[in-house]
Structure formats: structure tokens, C-alpha cells
Amino acid sequence: MKQVLIVEDDPMVQFIHQSYVEKLQLTFECSCCDSIAQAKELLIQKTFSLILLDIQLIDGNGIELLKWVRQQMIDCDIILITAANEMFLAKQALNYGVIDYLIKPFSYERFKQAIDKYLTKQQVFQQQQVDQAKIDQLLQVEQVNEEPTLALEKGLTKTTLATIIQQILLCQDGFTIQDLVEATQLSHVSIRKYILFLEQQHLLKSEMVYLKIGRPYLKYTLIEPNHPLIQNIFK
């Protein structure tokens, strides 16, 4: 059974924290105290897995107890609970390794989220070996998609971009905006937006073609047809 220490000087809030813990229906046993001095005595006498620690206590600041726990190398996790919203307190708490930081008033769902984070950490630490996936789980790191993707600007869609690129890939000797207009049945304005976007991504190059008769025109060429950004458009 895991031992939980609730350090809170308001009896009503202390009761709420304890009822939240009991509502989880886990193998937790709660002890309560209302001061730093009492908390130190209990931590010396008994082994706790988790501390729910308020900042404003009758004999000092909860950060002091947090520092003391770390200095004494006491192996337990701490969730800091406070009505204070000063950033410097949050920074101090995080620097001393709290597993979560709850600002009153908070919901039962947010409290449960903090406990779930604690349980995840405990589960990871029970394993004998570590790998990157376990570290990411421990640090709440989301899996990163390492494949490069195009972040489309407002007004552009992946479907239309894929249609345009598909036509561009067929134009091995280069193309004009008019070529794409005729092939896709899109407007000149729309085609220009997508061409400009592809140029900004350094996927197209353009050159001015001068004629003996008639107006010059811009001819575009795809720089690297097998570029990962191009290939990922069709996934």
C-alpha cells in the first residue's frame, strides 16, 4: 500500500484532498498534517511515496519543506498545491522536481491527471532497463513525427496542393501557370497562390523566357521531384 502525506493547514481543504485520494479507489493510505514541523517528523518516522504539499502553511512556506525533502534525499514524489499564482513560485517548485503543480481551485479530473502522472512515473521506474520510449513516457514527451511536412498557409488545402504537384510532376520540361490552369481547371489566382507557396518552400525555381515576338513569360521547374516534402503530400 502506497503512503500519501497531505500537508495542508486548512481542515476543510485537507478533507477534500483526502476524499479525492479515496475516490481514486487505489491502494493509497493517507496521513495528514498542517505544518512543516509535523511533516518533517512524519517523514522521518515513516516512508511516503507521495506528498500533496500546500505552499501557505502555519509555520512557513511549503517550498521550504520541498527543499528540505530534496536535501535529505528522501525518495518520494511531490505534487504542489497552492492558491498562489506567482510565476517565481512555480519556477522554484519545478526546479526542485515536483511532479505536478495544482492551482486552487482545481477539479477532481485535474487532480486525477496529476495522480496518473505520478503512477506513470512509478510504473516506469519499476522496470529494470531504460530506453528512449520509456524516458519519453516519463517526461510526458509526445512522439515526434520525424518526416518533414509542409505547414500550409491559410486558404491552401493539401488536396488542391496534391493535385497541382501531380500535374507539375508530369511537366518534365517545365511549366507555366497557364499550363496548370488548363490541366487542373483551377483559376489563375488559385494557381498563383500555390506556386508562390512552393517557391517559398524552395521547391520551385523560375526563369523568365523571352520571345522574339510576343511578351516574355515565367517558366517554372520543380527543383527536386523526389524531395520528402513532395512525397509526403500524397500520404
Automatic annotation (TrEMBL):
GO terms for molecular function: DNA binding; DNA-binding transcription factor activity; phosphorelay response regulator activity. It comes from the Bacteria. SMART domains: REC. Residues 3-119 form the Response regulatory domain. GO terms for cellular component: cytoplasm. It is found in: Cytoplasm. The modification 4-aspartylphosphate is found at D54. The keyword Protein biosynthesis does not apply. Its main location: cytoplasm. Keywords: Activator, Cytoplasm, DNA-binding, Phosphoprotein, Transcription, Transcription regulation, Two-component regulatory system. Signal peptide: none annotated. This is Transcriptional regulatory protein.
